[in-house]
Design goal:
17 helices, alpha/beta, disordered N terminus, globular
C-alpha cells in the first residue's frame, strides 16, 4: 500500500509541475510580465485545498498573478530554508522551531496570514491514531493511558509533534513517560509503523489518518479541538524580499486564495463532488478515503494572525530548548503585505 501511495504522490507531483509550467490554468486575462510567483505546497496535504482549487479554477490568474506551484513532500518546516534564500516566494508555514530560529540566524521570513485553524463542526488537520489492537484492548482511552507506550510524533517541531507534546504536558506526562520518538518523516511512514506494530500510538495528518483507519490499522482519536483549540495550524509565509518588494502580488495571491476559501467554506465543512474531484486529483488519494474523513477542515477567511497565540507556541518551544532565543512576534508578522487583519 505504501508503494501505491507514493506512486500516486509522485504522479500528483508530476501533474503539479505541468500545472506550474502552464501557469496553473487560466480563465481570465493573463497577468502582466514579471509577476510570476513561486508557491510551494505539499500536494499530499488536503489542508491546502484552497490553493489547489484556486490553481485549478484559474482564480490566481483572474486576480492578475501567475502562480507557479512548486510541489514538495514532507513537513512545511522544510520550506523555511527555501523561503529564507528566496528560492520560492510563498509557502504554507507552521509555527515550529525553525520559524523562530531563522530570525535569530539573520533571516526575516514574514507571516502574511493565518490559513487553517481548528473550529467546531469541521475536521482537524492532525489527529492521534491508536493502533487498532491497542484500542480494542481498552488500554487507551485518555492521554494519561499513554504512559509506558511507544508514541511517535513524526518530524520534531512540526504541528504533529506540538499536538502530542501539548497533550502530554497538559496531562502531567513527559516525553520520557511515553517513549516518544520522531521517526516518521511522512504520513505514509506513520501508516507503515502502525502496520508493522512499530508504535502503539502515533499522530498524523489527514487524509492519511483516515487511510490508516480504513485499512484496519488504527482508530482516529483526539485532534486539535480536543487538546489545543486555540492553535493556528498553518500560515502563509513569504520571503522577506517578496513581502517588501511585491506586496501587490501578495494581495493578488490572497485574493485568488480567498475566492477559493469562500467557495469551500460555503459547503459548511462538507465535501461536494467538485471539491472531492480537486482534492483527489492533487493528493492522489481515492475519493473513498477523502469522504471517510467525515468532512473538511476550516480555512480562516478572516486571515488575521493571533500574535498572542503565536507567542504561546514560541514559549513552548523555548521550554523544550528547541528555540534558543525569543523572537519579537510582531517582527515575524506582516499582514499589511497581503492586506490582512491582525490580532495582537
Amino acid at each position: 500500500m505504501r508503494i501505491r501511495t507514493l506512486t500516486r504522490l509522485a504522479a500528483a507531483a508530476t501533474a503539479l509541475a505541468a500545472l506550474a509550467l502552464a501557469g496553473c490554468g487560466s480563465s481570465g486575462s493573463a497577468p502582466a510580465a514579471g509577476t510570476g510567483v513561486k508557491l510551494g505546497i505539499n500536494p499530499a496535504q488536503v489542508q491546502y485545498l484552497p490553493i489547489m482549487l484556486a490553481a485549478d479554477r484559474g482564480y490566481f490568474r483572474d486576480a492578475g498573478v501567475d502562480v507557479q506551484i512548486v510541489p514538495y513532500q514532507g513537513s512545511a518546516n522544510a520550506q523555511i530554508p527555501l523561503l529564507a534564500r528566496g528560492d520560492i516566494d510563498l509557502s504554507p508555514a507552521v509555527a515550529g522551531p525553525s520559524l523562530f530560529n531563522q530570525y535569530t540566524q539573520g533571516f526575516r521570513i514574514k507571516l502574511l496570514a493565518n490559513l487553517t485553524a481548528p473550529k467546531p463542526g469541521y475536521r482537524d488537520g492532525v489527529v492521534f491514531v491508536v493502533r487498532k489492537d491497542v484500542w480494542d484492548s481498552g488500554r487507551v482511552r485518555t492521554i494519561a493511558d499513554l504512559k509506558g507506550l511507544e508514541v511517535d510524533a513524526s518530524a520534531e517541531g512540526n504541528p504533529v509533534d506540538f499536538l502530542v507534546r501539548e497533550a502530554l504536558a497538559a496531562n502531567g506526562l513527559t516525553p520520557a513517560d511515553v517513549s516518544l520518538t520522531h521517526n516518521a518523516r511522512t504520513p505514509s511512514d506513520s501508516v507503515e509503523f502502525l502496520r508493522g506494530n512499530v508504535v502503539d500510538v502515533t499522530a498524523m495528518s489527514e487524509p492519511s489518518a483516515t487511510q490508516a483507519e480504513q485499512q484496519g490499522l488504527g482508530v482516529r482519536w483526539l485532534g486539535y479541538q480536543d487538546v489545543i483549540p486555540w492553535f493556528q495550524e498553518t500560515f502563509l509565509a513569504a520571503s522577506e524580499t517578496f513581502a517588501q518588494q511585491r506586496p501587490d502580488d501578495a494581495r493578488k495571491v490572497m485574493a485568488g486564495y480567498l475566492r477559493a476559501v469562500e467557495e469551500i467554506n460555503g459547503a459548511q465543512g462538507r465535501w461536494t463532488p467538485e471539491l472531492l474531484a480537486v482534492a483527489a486529483k492533487w493528493t492522489g488519494q481515492s475519493p473513498d478515503v477523502l469522504t471517510a474523513m467525515g468532512g473538511l477542515m476550516y480555512w480562516n477567511a478572516a486571515r488575521s494572525i493571533d500574535q498572542a497565540g503565536l507567542d504561546r507556541v514560541q514559549r513552548f518551544w523555548l521550554d523544550t530548548k528547541l528555540v534558543q532565543s525569543a523572537v519579537p512576534i510582531a517582527d515575524l508578522v506582516d499582514t499589511a503585505a497581503a492586506g490582512t487583519g491582525n490580532a495582537r
